[in-house]
From TrEMBL:
Its main location: other. GO terms for cellular component: cell envelope. This is TlpA family protein disulfide reductase. It is found in: Cell envelope. GO terms for molecular function: oxidoreductase activity. It comes from Corynebacterium incognita.
Amino acid sequence: MRRMVIGSVVAAVVLTIAVVAAAVFVLRDPAPAEDNAAEQRASESVDPQLAAGLKRCPAGPVAGVELPCLGETDDTEKKSVTVVNVWAWWCGPCRDELPLVAELRAQHPEWTVVGVHADPNRNSGAVFLSEVGADLPSYQDDSGTFAGQLGLPGVIPVTVVAVDGEMVKMYPKTFESVAELEGAVRAAVGKA
């Protein structure tokens, strides 16, 4: 009986300490506004040295959604068919798939093939493109605007095929080869 009382007292003390620690954590002062502003500014643009190595994005909306380019934009005319690969710098499957998407772009100049980096950390996205050797213009989506406006699932990678700015097909999967990706685009365009 005495052991039960001691055990209950110890449990109560541990629980009290945990509650007090949680309260201190929740009630602590938030970071100063200047620090938050600095973090926001840091995520708004890519380091100029990193941006210099990125492909330029065609100006205007991508699949009907306005997004800034991860690098710079240019006046390249968008083609009727647009292939958009949604990726993030921390995504393992994206590491394997992005070079395939870049190869699709090289093999099909008649299509606009671009990426959308779905993470607020622009610099990590730019470094990632360089690391995987993906020569792919990519737009920056800090807040999930692209996925939200097109009703995409919350998984990546996702590949979207659009014709004349309207999404005709979405593939929430990782493609294993350029031929598989090309076949998916052709099937989607055939249905348009």
